[in-house]
Amino acid sequence: MLELRPSCECCNKDLPAEAADAMICSFECTFCRDCTEATLGGRCPNCGGNLVARPIRPVEKLEKYPASTVRVVRQDGCAPATA
To answer: Of 21, 24, 34, 73, which has the fewest CB atoms closer than 10 Å, so is most exposed?
Structure first.
């Protein structure tokens, strides 16, 4: 089950469970769409995998399967992707 991490690892922007701009890789690293497109070039800086839209968990499922409250933030932010 996805953790649904609460923030962008680059800029620490809040990304609640219903956020339409949350992006994830296959390891669930989580970024906002702005950082994904403008800084990361669509690639996860941790694993190199592609970043895709994170699914939204239906509200009625969040009570039984809550989103994570653990914030993961890269201490130095994210460096721009290299071509």
So the answer is: 73
pTM: 0.90
Question: DSSP assignment of 15-82, as one string?
Answer: --TT-TTEEE-TT--EEEHHHHHHTSTTB-TTT--B-EEPPPPPHHHHTTSPPP------TT--PPPP
Q: What is the pLDDT of residue 63?
A: 92
In angstroms, the CA 27 to CA 18 distance is 19
Beta carbons of 32 and 8 less than 8 angstroms apart: yes
pLDDT beneath 50, residues of the chain: none
Q: What pLDDT shows up at residue 83?
A: 58
Distance CA 7, CA 5 (A): 6
